[in-house]
Amino acid sequence: MVRKLQVGVSGLGRMGARHALHFLERTPRADLAAAFDPDEKTLAWARKCLVPFGTTLYTNYEDFLQHPGLEAVVVAGITTQHATQAVRAIESDKHVLCEKPLSTSIGVCEHVLNVAQTKPGLTVMCGFSRRFDASYRDAARRVRAGDIGRPAIVRSQTCDKHRDDDYFVHYAKFSGGIFVDANIHDIDLALWYFGQDSVVKSVTAVGINARLPDLEQYGDVDNGVGIVEFYGGKIAYFYASRTMATGQTDTTEIIGTHGKIVVNGNPQQNLVELHENSGIRREVPQTYYDRFEHAFVTESNEFTECVLDGKKAPFELAGAVAAVKIASALQKSLVTGKKIEYNEAGEEVVAEKPRL
Amino acid sequence: MVRKLQVGVSGLGRMGARHALHFLERTPRADLAAAFDPDEKTLAWARKCLVPFGTTLYTNYEDFLQHPGLEAVVVAGITTQHATQAVRAIESDKHVLCEKPLSTSIGVCEHVLNVAQTKPGLTVMCGFSRRFDASYRDAARRVRAGDIGRPAIVRSQTCDKHRDDDYFVHYAKFSGGIFVDANIHDIDLALWYFGQDSVVKSVTAVGINARLPDLEQYGDVDNGVGIVEFYGGKIAYFYASRTMATGQTDTTEIIGTHGKIVVNGNPQQNLVELHENSGIRREVPQTYYDRFEHAFVTESNEFTECVLDGKKAPFELAGAVAAVKIASALQKSLVTGKKIEYNEAGEEVVAEKPRL
Amino acid sequence: MVRKLQVGVSGLGRMGARHALHFLERTPRADLAAAFDPDEKTLAWARKCLVPFGTTLYTNYEDFLQHPGLEAVVVAGITTQHATQAVRAIESDKHVLCEKPLSTSIGVCEHVLNVAQTKPGLTVMCGFSRRFDASYRDAARRVRAGDIGRPAIVRSQTCDKHRDDDYFVHYAKFSGGIFVDANIHDIDLALWYFGQDSVVKSVTAVGINARLPDLEQYGDVDNGVGIVEFYGGKIAYFYASRTMATGQTDTTEIIGTHGKIVVNGNPQQNLVELHENSGIRREVPQTYYDRFEHAFVTESNEFTECVLDGKKAPFELAGAVAAVKIASALQKSLVTGKKIEYNEAGEEVVAEKPRL
Amino acid sequence: MVRKLQVGVSGLGRMGARHALHFLERTPRADLAAAFDPDEKTLAWARKCLVPFGTTLYTNYEDFLQHPGLEAVVVAGITTQHATQAVRAIESDKHVLCEKPLSTSIGVCEHVLNVAQTKPGLTVMCGFSRRFDASYRDAARRVRAGDIGRPAIVRSQTCDKHRDDDYFVHYAKFSGGIFVDANIHDIDLALWYFGQDSVVKSVTAVGINARLPDLEQYGDVDNGVGIVEFYGGKIAYFYASRTMATGQTDTTEIIGTHGKIVVNGNPQQNLVELHENSGIRREVPQTYYDRFEHAFVTESNEFTECVLDGKKAPFELAGAVAAVKIASALQKSLVTGKKIEYNEAGEEVVAEKPRL
């Protein structure tokens, strides 16, 4: 019989439940051996949808880690638990796929990275879903092949559909802010296309609350724009929004000295166009998952493959820390209203005090 | 002082008025010297909009032709008058730009052609507006350059926006039917891209009345599909409609052995896209003129240039007759329900009588 | 333990191997219990890719049908074997998913249908992949909801990328011709959108060999255009090609009295656009599978669900027979050069012999 | 006879010659009475193309202003002459259409504005061509109508095609820099869509030289990104480039609380799409004039109409000064590397000196 990776999913909320189903149903080389969630309502769902297929449920994370034969853990619960759970899993010799961000705190991110580096035999990945999307990968392949010359400018946006409820306001308590929560994907893309070793020169961000004034209490905004300068003649600029009328509209442009690649310049739900009295219309994905479902499934399969076949992960965990650093700097620039500058060693440059 | 072509427009109805204004305002090398229309309401408009700029009005066509210094006539009135007026203008030694079709009768078309051929010094053109459209011309240039190999298939459609009034029903009395009135443009395009000397092998057409059952009394339909086979391995197929919800949606594909060119595959009013709650929407031209305004202006200017500079017309009058022949055959096939076949000499092949 | 459908795949050629993998890896509720193929090279692949995961191989179809516990059979071998294998499977009380077409012979199709009707408890489906495509389904939902009024015109094309080898010529020996092999999908779509009970009034087809003159020996063409009139004011027109420069470009339009739906009007491989010196470019799917991979996976899963949960198949087997009838009529019209007419009872109307 | 506006064009370089021809040939209510240019080569062209149609040439600007009957002047020469010539024309009681920018110096701009305000009877306009483009106008109409709620974010870019020569380097000597020369259009659009009275809160810009390192000597860049914050919850962000591989790709998005409008999200030369072996391709405009030709013609006609009919200009001259102020601030931020902040009175806020 063929060996299947024994995977456990921690956290069965919205994204966690999806991860669980991806491993259960759409990752042929993995078994969903175990799942952890302390919430009774979530467990009820799991009893109906996971347990009949062989998954064991746990309400205690440490017990979950001790599940016989468990090899790998997907950390998919609330952001504030990501780092703690990831660290404990690594310490228990489990391979880890951790939802982004590792943490909203740079120090905590670095701690996870340090712990992971003590176990070089483990696959520890941060779940940047776009890294697994066919279109972003096609773009990466072309950039690497030199199709656009030297990449010089990245424009990237993560734009969510407006919701009439207060979801985004509640979410802001823990999300780390719009640049950390939403643009982190775009930052990761910039690092992918520019090179992971790109050194930040300056960071600036501004933002407004167009429809969600209650975000202000958390120092957050519903629309933000940021610029990140890198040494070596590279600029990334970002836009994030929680208030799009039409749906999830994430677009990225990579502009090189000799060409440009656009990913998702024309968002679309499917291949249907409607000719109506008011014109020609197409629908667009309503949520992040609508847009990236296939990327998440690829993620599950490639994580599994890396572990089973001893392959190198498609990208380094250190990159996830770098992305959080940049995102946090954008957030800090947003709140302080200041441009933040760095020297080539990566240290923040504090404006000189005038001499007396 | 620079010589300007002295032009007269016959017929100041919807399209005639536009032609008049194009020569008056947007054809720098021409003067709108005269205009003819017997209708009082139309003349009232002309007195206000043309006369102050130097145009003389006539209510008698023969008087109009005698306007001192008149050099060229645009025949833009009702279809049933096209041929008569064009012939009289040619006989009076005027250059002629005649709206399509010359006539809905092949015999009459041929008569106009014969008369024109007696005056080789005159420019006599039929107003196939798409021949002057930048996109169709770009396609023609590429086809001639061999960019798609040998052109083998043409798909072309002329689709009007549905109107809630009975315009199309009244219009059908004189229009010659949907293939003669609408698809004649597409037929002309097929002859352009395949070559004017293409010989028809067979013609088939079918149609329905989706929303305008009153068309039936005139043997016409509001949606028609036709196929024209040419000798030498070439097929054109056509669609015409009077019932589009969205607007004027004329699309053409030229498929060659080594590539395909699409003209107006994605109709659009302008360069604006609207992101709304219901999706992403663009508007489309509502009328034929919305789509082809610039082509009509180019037509005025090039007709003027041909006459003033003694240039050859951009296409032969004989092509206009060939297009009417094909359109009439499609109309006949629609009405009889029969496929019509031709030998290589262009003669209709009548099914053999079975031997006794 | 949860019950999984025990599936066997017959024929492990290009599409068969894909079906096998879909059931093995991407259909959580099914097991690929068995596979049949007589070809040694194909079996070698299966020994490596299927057997380790629990699939038993057979080189004799009858033995394959006797595989212990086998519940369902996917008939995916060469077209000429479809009907025989499907019939034997049904007779052996297996549920059947049969690749299209059931047969290129109407009589044989009807025989399969008759046999299937003797076993109403079995799920017997013909694999019209587009029925499982998200975009075609979205279109169907909108048509049913009345979004475009009454559907009146369907335009649909199946266009394959040109191949420099003689694949399509060899294929033509058994394929039944371009209308039966390629446009059968479009015909099926027309029946879906117009209603399965639509009655054909007339059929006309023409074709050429633009690049593959060797097709002529099989009475086939590399580019064909056909029109199918239905009683009740409905027209479908089709285009099929084997010579597209760019790739798989299957497009469908459903035109109703009050709107139009376009499926895949702008073919695209993914969401990437390339800005290059020569303009803006996107790539397109190169093969049918590139375009419809996800539809095939949905097909496997829904077939499995229908059987396990006793659900009605999403469409009737009778429709597959109706589609072959229309496709064969188009092929006959192509070869004879004649329009074929039918009365409302569905009988071909033979032109009256002239009276003596 | 109908009165025609007597127009003179100053400067017959690339854009000046086009303006001259627009007034000569495509502005029915205007005569090109006079033209001024000191350059012999340019005059040779004018003698051939303008003089035969009644235009008088001048090599002395003051003589040109004295041309009998001259009513209006188009200032279209080099940027450094714009202000001087505009002022002299106003002082000579001529209506003025001045190419953008009035000047690269804010003080000079304000001087022009002051002079213009002493002659309220004169039409004095700055030539922001996009204000006359059908698509930008459609967007403005929709914004004013409230279609997108309150406009909150504007993204706008002006991207020129890369040139292999050193045009952009030479041009940088006088252009005022990329934000003043290129993004000034985008800034003007932001003021249009946000309201002319919008008050700047902060300005930040960064830039690189991706292909034109020689720009550095002029303190300029070939790719620049800038953010302009306005009081009242409005942000505009800009991108300008001189190095696009594909052509002129100017795109604008206006994002409101309830919808978004995109102008030219998909640049295209015309309505042609090419299906080739490498995919589907369309060409894009190569130059600014390719994209905005019709807007320039509309500009000529509306300027003429404003003067002849005593209409208010479609936008205020003061806006042109405001745009230069913002553009200059972006340029200053680029060069200094500092974010520039303003109080609500529009005064630059200098960072407090730390107290001793």
Automatic annotation (TrEMBL), chains A, B, C, D:
Keywords: Oxidoreductase
Pfam families, per database record: GFO_IDH_MocA (PF01408), GFO_IDH_MocA_C3 (PF22725)
Source domain of life: Eukaryota
Domain Gfo/Idh/MocA-like oxidoreductase N-terminal as annotated: residue spans: 6-121
GO BP term, pick one: NADPH regeneration
GO MF terms, alphabetically ordered: nucleotide binding; oxidoreductase activity
Every GFO/IDH/MocA-like oxidoreductase domain range: 136-261
Residues spanning the membrane: none
GO terms for cellular component: cytoplasm
Family of this protein: Belongs to the Gfo/Idh/MocA family.
PANTHER family: BINDING ROSSMANN FOLD OXIDOREDUCTASE, PUTATIVE (AFU_ORTHOLOGUE AFUA_2G10240)-RELATED, NAD(P)-BINDING ROSSMANN-FOLD SUPERFAMILY PROTEIN-RELATED
Protein name: Gfo/Idh/MocA-like oxidoreductase N-terminal domain-containing protein
Origin species: Cercospora zeae-maydis SCOH1-5
